[in-house]
Write a structure and sequence with these properties.
The chain is mostly helical. It has helices spanning 2-8, 12-25, 30-42, 46-58, 63-77, 84-93, 101-113, 117-130, 135-147, 151-164, 169-181, 185-198, 203-215, 219-232, 237-249, 253-266, 271-284, 288-301, 306-319, 322-335, 340-352, 356-369.
């Protein structure tokens, strides 16, 4: 009782003295060992606390009690990364009972903290199988899979999650984003529409749904959701850039130029905005000097991006710098050999310099990749 009193009043040194005295008589007393571990933890002496807790975990203490100890270290590890190895060692000590969902979730969190995403995914898949009724586990798994770019697996797991939780916002959002990455635009639109209904003020959902509607050529509807997202965050460059793309595709160049300029005022170093604005100007053959500056910046920042290389090549084509255009577009093709637009652009350059046989060869190659390109025909 005196030890408990000292612990409650944060007199940890006195508590430890009494515990050590008692342990000399009762060295295997689990309560005394726990007291000492608690006192060391209260002093933030986690290594020393872990020594005591290891004794408890190796004892015949009930599994739930062991799990509670390990869970406490996991919670501390989320705030202090130096405790991660200690938490991991305690968890691995009791991992023999791998049929517990919470233990798998704890190990998953530790794996995330150690940048072991593959291992974390394995643990969270285990935990969702053991506790399919827990929505937070499905959320965690979905986010992990999406962030790891395992989009196919994310779709599989989130479809399972939605069977249990059809109105879970995170599950629907991750499903929609993953389907979009898998080029299932219709499926993505359905999932993202539902996620927007569930959380109509979520910026990510609004932007993703607006972008997906644009892919479905539903530009007017897309702009409704994107404008709402812009009202929620007027400085969001992704939203502004997507709106710029849509207005550009609608040939409302006054609006698109205004949006691109707004985005560059917010962040002049945004590579995607620089490239898209440069390409828009080059397609119209206007303000090509400005377009070239923007494209040169984009290529400098991302020298292996085929889209950026194509943009600068296309600008040089419009400027009459045909050899530079050929060099840049050929380099773009090295990084993206299955892009019909690149071969189309390169063919246009050769046609311009009157190398008709080379142009025809390249146009044919573009049609092999995408037979539906009418302008190439």
């Amino acid at each position: 009782m005196l030890i408990e009193s000292y612990l409650k009043t944060d007199n940890n040194d006195k508590a430890i003295l009494l515990v050590d005295d008692a342990l000399s008589m009762f060295p295997d007393d689990l309560t005394l060992i726990e007291y000492k571990g608690n006192a060391k933890a209260n002093q933030n002496k986690w290594d020393e606390a872990a020594v005591e807790y290891q004794k408890l975990i190796k004892s015949d203490l009930p599994f739930e009690a062991k799990k509670k100890i390990a869970g406490g270290f996991v919670a501390e590890a989320s705030m202090d990364s130096s405790i991660i190895p200690i938490a991991k060692s305690l968890l691995l000590e009791i991992e023999k009972d791998s049929t517990d969902w919470q233990l798998n979730a704890f190990l998953g969190e530790i794996a995330i903290a150690e940048d072991e995403d593959t291992l974390a995914i394995k643990y969270f898949i285990n935990s969702t199988q053991l506790a399919p009724w827990n929505p937070q586990l499905w959320n965690r798994l979905g986010i992990l899979l999406f962030d790891s770019q395992q989009f196919e697996q994310a779709v599989i797991q989130m479809k399972k999650a939605i069977i249990n939780f059809p109105d879970d916002f995170v599950d629907n959002l991750i499903l929609g984003l993953s389907l979009s990455q898998q080029k299932d635009i219709e499926g993505a639109a359905r999932a993202l529409e539902h996620s927007v209904r569930l959380n109509p003020n979520d910026l990510t959902a609004l932007h993703a749904y607006g972008f997906t509607l644009n892919q479905l050529k539903r530009n007017d509807a897309a702009l409704i959701y994107l404008e709402k997202a812009s009202l929620l965050d007027p400085t969001n460059i992704q939203v502004i850039g997507t709106m710029g793309l849509i207005y550009d595709s609608m040939k409302d160049y006054e609006m698109s130029d205004s949006l691109y300029e707004q985005a560059l005022l917010l962040d002049s170093a945004d590579v995607l905005i620089s490239n898209n604005y440069a390409y828009s100007l080059s397609e119209r053959g206007v303000n090509l000097d400005r377009a070239l500056v923007l494209a040169e910046f984009a290529v400098k920042e991302a020298p292996e991006n085929s889209s950026y290389l194509d943009t600068i090549g296309w600008i040089h084509f419009k400027l009459g710098n045909y050899s530079k255009a050929i060099d840049y577009i050929n380099k773009a093709i090295e990084f993206d050999v299955a892009n019909a637009t690149l071969f189309d652009h390169l063919a246009d350059v050769y046609a311009k310099i009157n190398d008709k046989s080379k142009a025809i060869e390249l146009y044919k190659k573009a049609l092999e990749i995408d037979p539906a390109i009418e302008n190439v025909k």
